[in-house]
Amino acid sequence: MPFLGYLGGKGVLDWVEAYAHWIAFGLLALIGAKMIYEGLQEGIEKDIATVTNKMMLLLAIATSIDAMAAGFSLTLLDINAYLACLIIGMSTFAFSWAGVQIGKRSGTWLESKAEIFGGTVLILIGIKLLVF
Fold this sequence. Notes:
single chain, mainly alpha, 84% helix
């Protein structure tokens, strides 16, 4: 999905190049704020208990759209998109696997803290894009 977002972004880059850093910041800030908001929500245990296959499919689609938005922001940066997508894929696999292993052992007490931390990191990356 990041690579598809990159390809889509290449098509519109000429139109938005002057605002590229603001767009990248906006995308990262929105995704980060959403993660922080969800991390601060109460009653998540009840929601987890009622997860269905349909809900899992919707979450997978939403996550893929977030990854596509991140891929779109790759067109706004001066980097090798193929290498970036490879690194994104490998790190996503590694962190997902580690997250499952940690989740098995920690239960739900670490859940919201990790989501808040991840959202904060995305927002800080967006701010870095604006400043540097």
